[in-house]
């Protein structure tokens, strides 16, 4: 048994990194390990059996100062305490293992022109603080990237390749399974007025621009319909864009959803045309439901997809219409979906937790010398 400290701002089933932390931590607890959680917010329903150490939520007027505050407060709370392993999912100072859930702030400067890069990087106190905090986190003894893309980002921007593992997020293969969808498909399609000959695409995400919704709307044409699940940025803009493209009747903006399985059930293809995505857990959930998926190569989840076998990966948005046309064939959809389910079964949350457990034992042994 290991005595573990887990650090995360919110122990909730909301965002991707938060849900990742909950799923792995609960399974480690189930394996008999002692868990101390250092968090600002923790759902009582999710934290039974876990020792909670509440970290104050300070400096909320500034995102960077809020992050620095969390790192300092967590560091102070951990001081003098003995753990086999301290595992953080946030920027911090004292962790043995750090899981990195997003692309580096340093790497983001590549998007700017040279002049803007200089002013943003060297003249902005906010940027300097973020870069300082990010550099500190890269000094962690062990790093875990959630995808190959994140591993490559760390190597490119911080020259780190040693003690760096890739452990992708998992999926609840029992909750997201093809059998659980049967009762949803016809009622949802009927409610939305979907005809038997329509090919229904599903987009899941709450950052519409970064997730590539613009590119997806541009290719919608008969017989396609598009379901958009998520409370994205500039919703009115995207509704107007659908109107300008003459596809308003073919696009359904459905907002946030408690149980996304109903829309996975109603869909024929799940698409994630992200411009930048550390992973993309909704795609793995769709794969677990035996749905064919189409994913941008700039989404980390693409590492799990063998093109034309268990899904489709595109590097250029101009490839998207041709791929979607291939999937008009129900045989191709069934084949890709069946293989997608097999892939998902190799990436259950249990297997993700097992991988972390092995890393934690290795880390504890190294600490003991």
Helix content: 25-40%
CATH topology tier name of the largest domain: Rossmann fold
Number of helices: 13
For the sheet with most strands, the description reads: 7 strands, parallel
CATH class term of the largest domain:
Alpha Beta
Q: What value does the average pLDDT take?
A: 93
Which ranges are low-confidence, i.e. pLDDT below 50, for 5 or more consecutive residues? none
Q: In the CATH hierarchy, what is the superfamily of the largest domain?
A: Glycogen Phosphorylase B
The first-to-last residue Cα distance is 18 Å
C-alpha Rg, in Å?
22 Å
Task: Tell me the fraction of residues in β-strands, as a range.
Answer: 15-25%
Number of strands: 15
Q: Which geometry do the CA atoms define?
A: globular
Secondary structure elements and pairings:
Layout: E1 3-7, E2 10-11, H1 16-30, E3 34-39, E4 41-42, E5 51-54, H2 63-78, E6 85-88, E7 97-100, H3 114-122, H4 125-137, E8 142-145, H5 148-158, E9 164-166, H6 182-191, E10 199-204, H7 213-217, E11 224-229, H8 235-244, E12 251-255, H9 261-266, E13 269-272, H10 281-288, E14 293-296, E15 312-314, H11 320-326, H12 330-345, H13 349-368
Parallel strand pairs: 1-3, 1-6, 2-4, 3-5, 6-7, 7-8, 8-9, 10-11, 10-13, 11-12, 13-14, 14-15
Helix pairs in contact: 1-13, 10-12
Report on this model:
This protein has helices at residues 16-30, 63-78, 114-122, 125-137, 148-158, 182-191, 213-217, 235-244, 261-266, 281-288, 320-326, 330-345, 349-368; strands at 3-7, 10-11, 34-39, 41-42, 51-54, 85-88, 97-100, 142-145, 164-166, 199-204, 224-229, 251-255, 269-272, 293-296, 312-314. The chain has 369 residues and is α/β, with parallel strands linked by helices. It has two domains: 3-170 and 348-368, 3-Layer(aba) Sandwich (Rossmann fold), CATH 3.40.50; 178-345, 3-Layer(aba) Sandwich (Rossmann fold), CATH 3.40.50. Strands 5-3-1-6-7-8-9 form a seven-stranded parallel beta sheet. It has a six-stranded parallel beta sheet with strand order 12-11-10-13-14-15, sandwiched between helices. The chain has a two-stranded parallel ribbon with strand order 2-4. β10, α7 and β11 form a beta-alpha-beta unit. α1 packs across α13 and α10 packs across α12. It is globular.
């Amino acid at each position: 048994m290991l005595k573990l400290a887990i650090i995360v701002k919110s122990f909730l089933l909301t965002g991707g990194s938060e849900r990742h932390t909950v799923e792995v931590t609960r399974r480690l607890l189930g394996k008999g390990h002692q868990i101390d959680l250092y968090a600002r917010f923790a759902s009582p329903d999710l934290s039974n059996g876990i020792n909670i150490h509440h970290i104050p939520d300070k400096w909320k007027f500034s995102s960077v100062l809020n992050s620095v505050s969390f790192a300092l407060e967590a560091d102070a709370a951990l001081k003098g305490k003995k753990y086999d392993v301290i595992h953080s999912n946030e920027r911090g100072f004292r962790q043995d293992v750090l899981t990195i859930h997003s692309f580096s702030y340093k790497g983001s400067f590549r998007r700017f022109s040279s002049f803007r890069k200089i002013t943003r990087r060297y003249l902005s106190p906010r940027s300097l603080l973020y870069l300082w905090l990010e550099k500190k986190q890269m000094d962690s003894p062990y790093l875990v990237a959630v995808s190959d893309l994140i591993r490559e980002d760390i190597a490119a921007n911080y020259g780190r390749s040693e003690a760096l593992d890739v452990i992708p997020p998992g999926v609840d293969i029992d909750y997201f399974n093809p059998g659980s969808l049967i009762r949803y498909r016809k009622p949802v399609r009927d409610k939305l007025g979907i005809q038997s000959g329509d090919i229904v695409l599903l987009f899941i995400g709450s950052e519409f621009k970064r997730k590539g919704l613009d590119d997806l709307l541009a290719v919608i044409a008969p017989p396609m319909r598009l379901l958009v699940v998520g409370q994205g940025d500039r919703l009115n803009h995207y509704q107007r864009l659908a109107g300008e493209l003459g596809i308003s009747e073919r696009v359904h903006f459905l907002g946030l959803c408690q149980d996304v399985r109903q829309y996975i059930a109603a869909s024929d293809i799940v698409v994630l045309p992200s411009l930048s995505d550390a992973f993309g857990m909704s795609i793995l959930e769709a794969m677990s439901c035996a749905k064919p998926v189409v994913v941008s190569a700039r989404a980390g989840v693409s590492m799990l997809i063998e093109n034309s076998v268990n899904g489709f990966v595109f590097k250029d948005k101009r490839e998207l219409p041709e791929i979607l046309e291939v999937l008009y064939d129900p045989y191709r959809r069934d084949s890709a979906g069946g293989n997608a389910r097999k892939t998902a079964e190799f990436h259950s949350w249990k297997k993700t937790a097992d991988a972390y457990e092995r890393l934690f034992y290795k880390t504890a042994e190294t600490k003991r010398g």
